[in-house]
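Weekly sync, protein design subgroup
Attendees: M.S., D.O., the rotation student, P.L. (late)

Item 1: inverse folding check
M.S. brought a backbone from last month's batch and wanted to see whether the design step gives back something sensible before we order anything. D.O. pointed out we never logged the input encoding, so this time it goes straight into the notes. Structure tokens as presented (336 positions):
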């Protein structure tokens, strides 16, 4: 059926949304409260127009860039997003394989359904890529320390400290659907088994787990004392916080609003990017995620000073329709 051909990320979203059940679909696709920020993330790109030059030799274009000290094939990688096994049984292991196949990096969510070791091993069968471990500021500091040690031992190159989630964003869909983790799925990174996972909603689980008394002064030196991995702060939207990341010796910031799933009403990441780039003054890396759905989106962010872009939902939609995608549509074809 030609109407079902997947040529763009919008097509991918449409087909994935047909395949996923309501509760999973809304969990993946929605933002928080009024959906303002999730909408703006992707519409912000259309406020910029390209100014192309012509008669330039593009026969030997090289899209590669360097991240965590190693070359990746093009400036896009897969953001940390939890619960990927709800979209496909192979979940984060499959995402990791896909990243390895395309030569890009991946960040592993604290709420991954596969262990750090399993995600690393899945990629290693195909090729060398780098992984970051995404962390929250946890109440259980011993568990946080165990995760860091495991990630470092498994070869992860960076910690992404997600700083935009002192409390979980208010997502009406999760409340309306009484969203629970499906039977049989676990969260091995944070050492949570099926039974414990199903007895609580995502929100109540998060409250019990996350420490909202976090701060730059407490958490960055604590991390630095425990790992040689790079430290990136995920969820920065301002020049002020970029400056603080520099002052605290962080390796970079990821300009992010959690895909519009946390505080609704914050600016689109593309609009927040220039002030963060300006504040960083080249001293630390500036990456960005939120609403990237085409190659020109990536181009616009790079033109505004980003070093690399990341995507969350497009990878999940890819997992959900992976059987349709047997024709081997590659992220590179859509984005490149
Ligand atoms: C996320 N995101 C996220 N971020 C994070 O730091 N830790 C996490 O566990 C999760 N989990 C998560 C689950 C799902 C289903 C989604 C869609 C997103 C946010 C993610 O890392 C990223 O910031 C956004 O997904 C980027 O926006 P797009 O590309 O999805 O528009």
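Designed sequence read out in the meeting:
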């Amino acid at each position: 059926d030609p109407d079902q051909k997947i040529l763009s990320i919008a097509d991918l979203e449409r087909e994935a949304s047909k395949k996923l059940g309501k509760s999973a679909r809304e969990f993946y696709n929605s933002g928080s409260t009024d959906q303002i920020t999730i909408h703006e993330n992707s519409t912000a790109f259309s406020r910029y127009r390209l100014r192309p030059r012509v008669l330039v030799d593009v026969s030997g274009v090289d899209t590669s860039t360097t991240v965590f000290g190693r070359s990746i094939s093009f400036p896009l990688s897969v953001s940390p997003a939890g619960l990927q096994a709800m979209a496909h049984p192979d979940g984060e292991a499959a995402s990791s394989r896909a990243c390895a196949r395309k030569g890009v990096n991946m960040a592993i969510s604290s709420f991954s359904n596969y262990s750090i070791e399993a995600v690393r091993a899945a990629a290693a069968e195909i090729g060398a890529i780098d992984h970051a471990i995404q962390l929250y500021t946890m109440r259980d500091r011993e568990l946080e320390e165990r995760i860091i040690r495991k990630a470092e031992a498994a070869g992860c190159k960076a910690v992404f400290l997600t700083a935009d989630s002192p409390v979980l964003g208010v997502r009406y869909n999760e409340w309306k659907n009484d969203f629970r983790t499906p039977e049989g799925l676990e969260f091995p990174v944070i050492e949570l088994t099926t039974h414990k996972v199903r007895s609580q909603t995502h929100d109540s689980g998060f409250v019990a787990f996350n420490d909202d008394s976090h701060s730059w002064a407490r958490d960055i030196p604590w991390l630095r004392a425990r790992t040689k991995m790079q430290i990136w702060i995920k969820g920065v939207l301002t020049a002020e916080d970029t400056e603080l990341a520099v002052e605290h010796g962080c390796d970079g910031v990821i300009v992010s609003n959690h895909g519009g799933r946390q505080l609704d009403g914050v600016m689109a990441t593309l609009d927040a990017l220039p002030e963060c780039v300006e504040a960083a003054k080249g001293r630390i890396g500036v990456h960005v995620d939120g609403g990237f759905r085409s190659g020109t989106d990536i181009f616009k962010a790079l033109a505004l000073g980003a070093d690399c872009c990341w995507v969350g939902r497009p990878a999940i939609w890819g997992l959900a329709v992976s059987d349709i995608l047997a024709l081997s549509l590659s992220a590179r074809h859509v984005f490149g």
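Discussion: The longest strand covers residues 230-236. Strands lie at 65-67, 70-72, 76-78, 106-108, 131-135, 158-162, 230-236, 252-255, 285-289, 308-311.
Action: P.L. to compare against the previous round before Friday.
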